[in-house]
Amino acid sequence: MSNLTPMMKQYMKIKKKYPNTIVFFRLGDFYEMFFDDAITASKELEITLTQRDCGGDKKAPMCGVPHHVSDSYISKLVEKGYKVAICEQLEDPSVAKGLVKRDVIRIVTPGTITDLNVLDEKSNNYLVSIYLDDIGIGISYVDTTTGEMYTTEYIGNKEGSYAFVLDELGKIYPSEIIVNNSFMQNKKFVRSIETRINPFINLYDDNFITQKDWEKLILSHFNINNLNIIGIKDKIYSIISTGVLIDYLYDTQKSSLEHITQLNYYEPKEYMILDINTRINLEIHETIRSREKKGSLIGILDKTSTAMGGRLLKKWLEQPLININEIKKRQEIVEHFVDDIILMDQVKNCLRGIYDLERLVGKISYGNCNARDLVSLKISIEKIPELKNLLLQSGQKNFIELAMIIDPMKDVYDLIDKSIIDNPPISIKEGGLIKEGYNQDLDELKRASIDGKQWLAKLESKEKENTGIKNLRIGFNKKSGYFFEVTKSNLNLVPDYFIRKQTLTNSERFITKELKEIENKIIGAEDKMIEIEYMIFQDIRKRVKNETYRIQKVSKLISQIDVLNSFAQVAYENNYIKPQLNDKGIIHIVEGRHPVVEKTIENEMFVPNNTYLDMDSNRVQIITGPNMAGKSTYMRQVAIITLMAQIGSFIPAKEANIGIVDRIFTRIGASDNLSQGESTFMVEMNEVSNIIKNATKNSLIILDEVGRGTSTYDGLSIAWAIVEYIANEIKAKTLFATHYHELTELEEKIEGIKNLTILVEERGEEIIFLRKIIEGSTNRSYGIEVAKLAGINNKIIDRANEVLHQIEKKHNFAIDQKPDKLDKQLSVDDYKKEYFIDKINKIDVSKITPIEAINILYDLSEEAKRLKEKA
Ligand code: ADP
Ligand code: MG
C-alpha cells in the first residue's frame, strides 16, 4: 500500500467503503475499473482488460468505458445483478491543485436504477424492504423512478408471516429486496423466492436495525411531526421496514429524494388476495409457456395510452377490489365512455399526448433532467385543460366531479413556456436553452455576441482595404481564438501592426490589437451566456420541483382516467357487458367466454357457457369430460371473469351477476418445480395445503386434476378427501375438473356438490368437441382418441385400446369401489372379505364362459397374493 501512487491510494480508500459494488472511477473522460472489478466488468461487458501502473513495480488490471456512453454499461451490469458505485471528480481537474477530489455520488442497484432506456415503461421497478421476527413482519417498497412508496405489516406466527410475504412479493415482483438476518434463516423459503422472483438480495444486520431510531428518520424524510399523518403510528413492523428502506435509499442514492412525498399504508385484506400461483396459473401478466404479455389477460385489457395508465392497470390487476361501491364507481365511468364512443376517442387522443409525468417528476427530483424533459412536461400539461373540458362538457356527474379536481397547472406551464425554447439541445451546459425575453442580462449578452459578429465583419473589410489583401479572412479556432489568415502569396502586403501567431503550410495567421479587443468581448459574452443559461435552467428546475406533489396528484387522476378509458375501449371492441355485483355469494354468468382463448382459437368459434354457483346447493362442481374438451378453459374463464368484475372492468358474457369473492385460488396443471428440489406431487400438495389453510366460504377455488402426480389409488383418495373437506368444512365455491369419474358419486353424498360434464359427440372412431357444459357426468376420458388426433400412429393407438380394455376389465371393481371403502372407513379385514364375496357374488354361473371363469380366478388369486404381501 505504501508505495502506491497517490491516485491509487485514493482509489483503494474509496473501494474499501464500497466492497460489494463495482466502482466506476472517473478519470478524465473515462470511468475506469481496477483489480477484481476490472476482471468482472471486462467479462460481463465484453471490453478489453488492460493494465495500469499503480506504484512500485505493481500493475493493476484495468478496464474502462467512455463517460458519455457510461449509462448503457452501468445498466448492463445492474441488469446482470451487480451494484455500481459511481465515483466522480468533485472538482474541475483543470483548476484543481494536486490530486483531484473524488467520491461516490450514487450507487446504482437493480431496485434503484433510473435509466429509462432499460426500464419497461408500463411496469414499476420496485425495491422492497422486509423486516421479520418471531411475532410479525413489515414490508415496505418504493419505485424510485416515480416516487411511490407503500407499506403493510402482519402480526402472527412465522408461518403466517412467510405466507404473507410470499403473496405480497408475488404481487410486487421486486427486482431487489433488503432483508434482515432472521428472514434469511429459512433457507428453503429464500430459495423459493429466488427461483420464483429472483431479486437481488441485500442483508441488514439485526443489531444495526434494533439500534436505530427509525421513527425519527421517517418523520424527517416526510417532514412531519407525527406518524399518524402517514397512517403508521402503531405499526411497529411497518416503521422498521420503512425506516430501513429510506436508510438504504439515502445510502445508495445520496440525494434528498424529494419526490417520495407519501407513504401509503394498506391492509392486503382490503383487496382480493391472489397468491403467486394463482397469478401465474391464470396467466394474468404473462403466459406460462412463453412468459410473454401477448396471450395474457393484461395483453387483452391493456389499451392504455400513457405509461402511467399502464402501470396503474397492472396494480389494479394485482389488487382487485372487494368493496362493491368502489367497483361500481369504476364501472360507471367505463359505462359513460362506452355510451359515448366519441368522447371515449377524444379522451384517448388527448391522453396520447401526455408523457410519463410520474417518471419525469422523478427525474426532476433526482436532478438529472434536461431542458427537453421540461419541454415534455410542458407539452403534457398543455393537454390537461383539454382533458378537463372534455370531461366537463360530457354533462355526466361522475366526469364533472373528476374534472373539478384536476389541477390545470397553468402556472407550471407558463413558467416553462416563458423560459425554455421549444427544441432545446440535450446538454444543459452549452447554452441555447433559454427563450429571448425571459432574462434581461442574458438578452444583453446575446446582443453583444451578435453585435460582435458584425464588428468582426466590419473589421475584416476595413483591413482588406487598408492592406490590399483581397482574400484576407478572419478565422476562429478554440485554441487560438480569432485571427487574420494571410496566404503565402500575400505575405509581402502584411503591415507591421499585424502580429504573427502561427505559420501553416500555405498561410500564416496574425492578430491585431483591435481584433483581440473584439474577441474578448465576444468570448466573454459567450462564456457568461452559458453560465447564466445554466443558472436559469437550475432555477426553473427547482421551481418545477417545488410543484412535485401537485404534478403527482394530477398524474394519478390521469392514470385512472386512462385505465377506465382503456376498459371502455376493450369492452366496446370485444363485446363485453357490465356485470351486476352482489354480496350474496352468487356467481351467475350467462354465456360467459374466456377473454384470451376466444381471441386465440383460429378455426373454431368460441362456445360460450353458463355458470351458476352459490353458497348452498351449488357450491362445488365436479367437472368430468374428455381430454381437450374445454374443462380447464371453462374453469379459468369463471375465475378470470370474477377477477375482471372486481377490478371494475366489463366482462365477456351476455349477462352476469358476480358475487364478490375474497380470494381466488387455483391449482392448475402439473407445473413442475424440480429446480426447487421438489417433485411435482409435492408441489401440488403444497399448493393444495395452502388453499385449504387460507380459503374461506367467500373464496373461489379452481382445482384442475388434483391428485394426478401419484398412483391412481392414492390420487383418487386424496382428491376425494379434499373435495369432501372443502364442501363440508370450508364451503368455498369450487370448480374441480377431474378424470377420476368416481368423484361424481359425491353429488349423491354431499348437499352442495353438482356434477358437470362437457358434451362430445362420437362419430364412429372420431370424437367431436361440442364445448358445451351440461349437468351430468361421464366416465370416459377419451385419452386414446385425443392421442390419435394428435397424430400418434395406429399401431400404438390399437395397442393402447387393447391394453385399456384389459386394464379396465381387471381393475374396474377396485377403482370403482375404493372411495366407498374410504367413506365407510372399512378395516383391511372387512375390505378383504367384501372384495372376495362381492366378486364371487357377481358371477352368474349359468352364463359364464370358461375363459371368463379363468380370468376371474386369475384376478382373485392375484388380489389374494397382493393382500397377503401387504399383511
Ligand atoms: P381440457 O382441460 O378439458 O383438457 P382445455 O380447457 O385445455 O381442455 O381446452 C382445450 C382446447 O380447446 C383449448 O386450448 C381451446 O383451444 C379449446 N376450447 C376450450 N374451450 C373452448 C370453447 N368454449 N370454445 C371453443 N374452443 C374451446
Ligand atoms: Mg385441462
From TrEMBL:
Residues 501-528 form a coiled coil. Residues 699-715 form the DNA mismatch repair proteins mutS family domain. GO terms for biological process: mismatch repair. It comes from the Bacteria. The gene is mutS. The keyword DNA damage applies. Keywords: ATP-binding, Coiled coil, DNA damage, DNA repair, DNA-binding, Nucleotide-binding. ATP binds at G625, P626, N627, M628, A629, G630, K631, S632. GO terms for cellular component: cytosol. This is DNA mismatch repair protein MutS. This protein is involved in the repair of mismatches in DNA. It is possible that it carries out the mismatch recognition step. This protein has a weak ATPase activity. It comes from Keratinibaculum paraultunense. CDD domains: ABC_MutS1. GO terms for molecular function: ATP binding; ATP-dependent DNA damage sensor activity; damaged DNA binding; mismatched DNA binding.
